[in-house]
């Protein structure tokens, strides 16, 4: 039986006279632990739990009534010492069960059960004043300490994956990586920026191979139907294409100068092409066996061709002369490539054989033993210090070439592994496989650094501790699954969302902002469940308020808050009219609360979530209620806040007001057809003080549930280490946390206003730039972390483009910032793509902006900027567009 613990601080201990050695001034440094030995093997020798507890600032001792020390539980022998019992408890002749110089629980205690001492075994008779104090202490323990529960180990589930990775290549400098997945779309990753930056159109056939030029900025893809294409990392679309005739391509390499490509074919032949015009420079005849790999030496003078019959040929590129032809294995050759130069090469076969050869010798130089299956791919560390190979299934093997003994073996993937390569830093090794995941490993200790995931419409990265980053569409496809749990990755935002995670983990730079979940590798405590008790149908004569009962149950992970959402928007806690708590005999709490709110005519979606003590959001239980009542026509409320002319002239902007008016005009002109009324609320320049913004937001509280609210902000935005701030008119430089707190509006304050808005459909658009010419990476990350949490906690659609410099959001040619320009284009109808049906939905607008802003910023600002998208709210039609 696997058991775990959940320590709780004893706040109640301050409310009674403490026994000897319990010093009130030290309460903030103390935790209570009470253990009894697992009874499966020790039941005959131990019939009761510890009954006396003593605290000291530097030690904690647990005592048994029988006076026998069970076992020293410390991992430090010096701490296994006897401790003297307090004088008033000498009658029990207690001996310490445990002493420890820190009140904490080591990992090795998985075989011990955290329990309330007084709840198990025989209690002590209350014959002394200390016993009365002990009874009070017992009540505090019972209220604050839960019985242990199973921690559930989690595995990551990916839906709508892009499919198995067919081919992958990494640029020599390690900045760019290209992968082609089962959906046929080449994906370009910028590993320094820590994200996927481009998805190209689908190829015409399966990718046979992909290879980078030595400049790291151009790459080529060859397909099984003979299509060869050349690409650049700087632009969408291929630079050029050619169709190769003859046997199907199976392998690809580029010359060191990137001017030529060598393509291997299914009959063992190879073709050398000049990439400037895709002309054939030379053909190398085949031997009838499939070319498993081709490689070009470091000087470009020699080409290696490995074929499935076990033959390796080294030929001169200029003349085609065969320098070396040798049969290196009786098994099927699966990979072959040059070593650190053209004087040596490495081979791998389908029996697990890996070897190093000299080009000028028929004798094998080194054999690398340890593989138990056939090898699917091979990689040589650039300095020749290590060689890595992947078995066809599961394992990555890494050998030190100086002493090639037993390899480091890593279980890298659950299924088939397609390939392996060394990163620019050779201490990192990259693998990819049929599971659609690319993983980066620490070569020294075999630990997982990060995993990269591509879905049909997005990207995500997840580290070994559960931290994650990604775009909204990919993250919506990820979930953590346990034995009885299934939780969207979004439910872990508070503890695990980490902007720029790939850059931080891969390069080991930057500060981690997400606190993480303690003991993640051991699993999580089950978060509380929350249910809504309503009938599936309700008939109302008029749209009046109804009571919505919510029940929250502690499943062992504690309750650290709960929420009700109506049509996916948070219902303000002010709507709670009653709340009761109960506690089971095991110390597990149940909360029942009743909200009072007005539904809308038609379908109403209710769900409640609760948060555990580990800040993990529990599962969503959705209840759909059809309300039969006279409908009410919705109103569109558009609040635009824009500041061009700040009180401090150093903060002046040029396009905030034109951007806001552009949003107003498109909504008033296009969206009145599906709303009974469009109400424009503008707060511009000197009206956009902190007080002015607060009042405008407060006025939205009385909007009806059927209504739609759009909040648009254009101005400066700044982040601290705890919050994001909308910079209001009266703010003056220099920048400081104190000034922001007093003269700007925080995202936390914005959340309080938004959750009180009566409308159940809310969209927030933030077009903010920094007050300086650039912003530190830390602040940019805080922007994204705080704004994402705002969207999640309130339940709304939020699109934020907090740019690094003003130029990135303002450009004369567009007449708007690139973000607002993309929004206006989307709202004018260009976003009506998925499906193209004349109905413009919020998610179509959001996704269009997510795709277009990077392209526009690249074109007009010479760097790509990606808006933060968070789309938790209910999707709905915002406008109608002419059929296209």
UniProtKB/TrEMBL annotation:
Against InterPro entries, the record matches this protein to: Caspase-like_dom_sf, Pept_C14_caspase, WD40/YVTN_repeat-like_dom_sf, WD40_repeat_dom_sf, WD40_rpt
* Listed GO MF terms: cysteine-type endopeptidase activity
Ranges: WD repeats: 158-199, 410-451
Q: Which GO terms describe its biological process?
A: proteolysis
Q: What Pfam families does UniProt report for this protein, alphabetically?
A: Peptidase_C14, WD40
For this protein, the record's PROSITE patterns field holds:
WD_REPEATS_2, WD_REPEATS_REGION
Q: Work out whether the entry's keyword set contains Transmembrane helix.
A: yes
What keywords does the record list, in alphabetical order? Membrane, Transmembrane, Transmembrane helix, WD repeat
Location of the Peptidase C14 caspase domain: 638-858
This chain belongs to the protein called Peptidase C14 caspase domain-containing protein
Naturally occurring in which organism (per UniProt): Hwanghaeella grinnelliae
């Amino acid at each position: 039986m696997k058991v775990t613990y959940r320590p709780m601080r004893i706040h109640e201990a301050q409310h009674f006279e403490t026994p000897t050695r319990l010093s009130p001034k030290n309460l903030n440094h103390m935790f209570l632990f009470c253990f009894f030995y697992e009874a499966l093997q020790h039941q005959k020798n131990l019939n009761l739990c510890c009954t006396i507890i003593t605290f000291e600032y530097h030690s904690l001792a647990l005592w048994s009534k029988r006076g026998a020390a069970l076992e020293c539980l410390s991992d430090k022998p010096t701490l296994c010492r006897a401790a003297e019992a307090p004088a008033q408890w000498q009658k029990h002749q207690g001996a310490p069960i445990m002493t420890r110089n820190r009140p904490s629980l080591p990992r090795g205690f998985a075989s011990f059960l955290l329990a309330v001492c007084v709840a198990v075994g025989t209690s002590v008779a209350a014959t002394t004043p200390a016993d009365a104090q002990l009874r009070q202490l017992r009540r505090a323990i019972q209220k604050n300490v839960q019985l242990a529960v199973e921690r559930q180990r989690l595995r990551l589930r990916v839906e709508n994956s892009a499919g198995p990775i067919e081919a992958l290549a990494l640029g020599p400098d390690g900045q760019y990586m290209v992968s082609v997945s089962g959906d046929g779309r080449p994906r370009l990753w910028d590993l320094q920026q820590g994200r996927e930056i481009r998805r190209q159109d689908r190829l015409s056939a399966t990718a046979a191979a992909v290879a980078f030029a030595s400049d790291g900025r151009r790459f080529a893809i060859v397909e099984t139907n003979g299509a060869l294409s050349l690409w650049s990392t700087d632009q969408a679309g291929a630079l050029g294409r050619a169709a190769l005739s003859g046997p199907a391509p199976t392998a690809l390499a580029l010359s060191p100068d990137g001017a030529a490509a060598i393509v291997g074919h299914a009959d063992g032949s190879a073709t050398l092409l000049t990439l400037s015009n895709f002309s054939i420079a030379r053909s190398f005849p085949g031997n009838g066996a499939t070319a498993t790999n081709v490689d070009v030496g470091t000087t470009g003078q020699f080409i290696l061709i490995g074929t499935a019959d076990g033959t390796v040929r080294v030929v001169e590129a200029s003349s085609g002369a065969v320098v070396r032809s040798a049969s290196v294995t009786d098994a099927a050759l699966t990979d072959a490539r040059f070593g650190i130069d053209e004087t040596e090469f490495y081979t791998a076969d389908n029996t697990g054989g890996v070897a190093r050869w000299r080009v000028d010798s028929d004798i094998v130089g080194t054999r690398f033993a340890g593989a138990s299956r056939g090898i699917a791919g091979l990689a040589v560390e650039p300095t020749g210090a290590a060689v890595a190979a992947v078995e066809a299934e599961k394992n990555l093997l890494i050998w030190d070439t100086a002493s090639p003994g037993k390899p480091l073996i890593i279980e890298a993937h659950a299924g088939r592994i397609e390939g392996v390569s060394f990163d620019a830093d050779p201490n990192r090794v990259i693998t990819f496989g049929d599971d659609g995941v690319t993983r980066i490993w620490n070569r020294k200790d075999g630990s997982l650094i990060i995993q990269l995931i591509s879905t049909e419409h997005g990207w995500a990265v997840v580290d070994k501790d559960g931290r994650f980053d990604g775009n909204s569409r990919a993250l919506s496809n990820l979930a953590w699954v346990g034995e009885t749990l299934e939780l969207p990755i979004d439910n872990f935002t508070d503890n695990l969302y980490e902007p720029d995670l790939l850059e931080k983990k891969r390069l080991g730079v930057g500060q981690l902002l997400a606190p993480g979940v303690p003991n993640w590798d051991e699993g999580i405590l089950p978060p509380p469940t929350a249910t809504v008790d309503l009938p599936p149908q309700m008939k109302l004569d008029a749209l009046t308020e109804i009571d919505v009962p919510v029940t929250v149950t502690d499943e062992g992970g504690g309750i650290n808050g709960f929420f009700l959402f109506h049509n996916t928007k948070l219902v303000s806690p002010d709507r709670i009219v009653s709340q009761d708590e109960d506690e089971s005999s095991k110390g597990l709490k149940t909360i029942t609360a009743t909200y009072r709110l007005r539904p809308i005519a038609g379908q109403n979606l209710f769900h409640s979530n609760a948060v555990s003590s580990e800040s993990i959001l529990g599962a969503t239980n959705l209840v759909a209620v059809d309300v039969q009542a006279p409908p009410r026509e919705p109103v569109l409320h558009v609040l635009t806040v824009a500041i061009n002319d700040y009180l401090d002239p150093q903060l002046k902007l040029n396009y905030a007001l034109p951007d806001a008016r552009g949003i107003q005009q498109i909504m008033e002109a296009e969206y009145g057809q599906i709303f009974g009324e469009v109400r424009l609320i503008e707060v511009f320049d000197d009206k956009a003080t902190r007080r002015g913004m607060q009042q405008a937001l407060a006025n939205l509280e009385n909007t009806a549930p059927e209504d739609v609210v759009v909040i648009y902000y254009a101005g400066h935005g700044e982040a601290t280490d705890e919050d994001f701030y909308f910079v209001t008119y009266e703010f003056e430089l220099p920048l400081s946390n104190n000034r922001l707190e007093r003269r700007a509006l925080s995202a936390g304050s914005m959340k309080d206003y938004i959750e009180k808005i009566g409308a159940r459909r809310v969209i927030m658009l933030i077009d903010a730039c920094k007050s300086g010419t650039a912003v530190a990476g830390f602040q940019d990350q805080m922007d994204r972390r705080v704004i994402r949490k705002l969207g999640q906690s309130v339940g709304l659609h939020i699109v934020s483009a907090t740019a690094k410099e003003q130029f990135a959001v303002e450009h004369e040619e567009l007449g708007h910032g690139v973000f607002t320009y993309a929004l206006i284009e989307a709202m004018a109808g260009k976003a009506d793509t998925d499906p193209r049906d004349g109905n413009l939905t919020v998610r179509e607008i959001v996704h269009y902006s997510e795709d277009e802003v990077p392209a526009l910023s690249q074109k007009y600002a010479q760097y790509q900027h990606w808006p933060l998208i968070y789309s938790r709210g209910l999707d709905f039609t915002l406008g109608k567009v002419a059929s296209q």
